[in-house]
Amino acid sequence: MVKRLLKMYGPLILALILTLTACAADGKAEPLTRTLRKGDSGDLVLEIKNRLYDLGYYTKSRKFGKQFNEQMEELIISFQERNGLEQTGEIDQATYDTLYSETAVKMPRPTLAPLATPGPAPEPDWPERDADGYLDGDGEYFYENDEEGLWIYLGKNLQIRIRRCRDERKELSWFETDIRTRNGEAFRTVATNPDKPGKQYRYPFDIAADEHFVLGFSDDFYAERMKKKSADRPGIIIRSGAIYSDLTNSKTGHHLPNLDMMAQYPDGSLNVYLCNELTAEELLEKGAVNVFSFGPYLVRNGEINPLVYDYYRSIEPRHALGMIEPGHYLLLSVEGRTRSSKGTMLQRVAEMMREHGVREALNLDGGNTMALIFRGRMLNKLATYKNKEFVRTVTSLIGIGYTDNIEE
Known about the structure:
This protein is of the alpha+beta class. It has helices at residues 2-25, 43-54, 70-82, 93-99, 204-210, 222-228, 280-285, 307-310, 346-355, and strands at 141-145, 150-154, 158-167, 172-181, 188-191, 215-217, 235-239, 242-247, 260-264, 270-273, 290-294, 297-300, 303-304, 318-325, 328-334, 360-364, 372-374, 377-378, 383-385, 388-390, 396-400.
């Protein structure tokens, strides 16, 4: 009997499975069977609300109910207007298909007023360089101009250009560090006590000098979370292919840190993920060498994280690492808590990243942890916290390049 039923209805069952699979692949919870309008309710209404949030029509929260209410109707009309559809406020098949299409028009987010454009940088007396701008030959080249705010390193496989920028109107100063690599040159990580994270704190510039980093900078400060053993999870932490922690948040959120992460791969790629998107083992299987966990992510696939428009509005020192393409990176270090620079919000950092062509970016630990170190010397000013001016001691650091020319 069962065999006969399978023979009769097998093709129909297979077609149904393929249809449901196709819907799932499009990101739709279920196919639309009738026009939805105000007063309706159910899981599909909730799923559509989440989709509207992803497209920027809802803001502030993802905690939606299942009711098709007046607010949802207004947002559907706005979506239909921006996408050239009949403005009915109802979800018919055309509206539903457009919602889940790759060409769905997003609600534009309010952007911040642009910062002042830095003036022309001084032109160094360049050494011999190859066609890609790297040092032509062995050795290394340094250029340092503290007054103009320009620091340069050239090696055979590494270029670093640090520019100090300022906007007097915003009482804001920041460093833009452009990093280019080839032939396997990559970011390295170091821990003061890998076996016991959180047991040996040192100044970041001392760590960078001992490691002979050309460029060193503070990371996700993971050891502090591992040491506390509190409700705050460390996040997924991988260093040099070894898992230090696989404890992360089960849900995404807008607390700080929310434990979004950035994975570094051998081909030079830096990719960001939500805190609960992949496990530590899955990241290792994908080839991750290092995974930094702090967050939130700022840019992904060239798109700014919607969370930064509604949260993380406090004015603070900020630190973020981004990838323009494999082998080409941007580190933004925003000074704050000083007399000359207050700091900024994460929306500003995300927008600065995207303006520079960054495709993937993660917010690292800022505040008094933020440190930018060139040849063993910290370039950013000390920040003030609780009436004390200091840079935080840390137990780990990110760096790149190797040099014996460390400043005393």
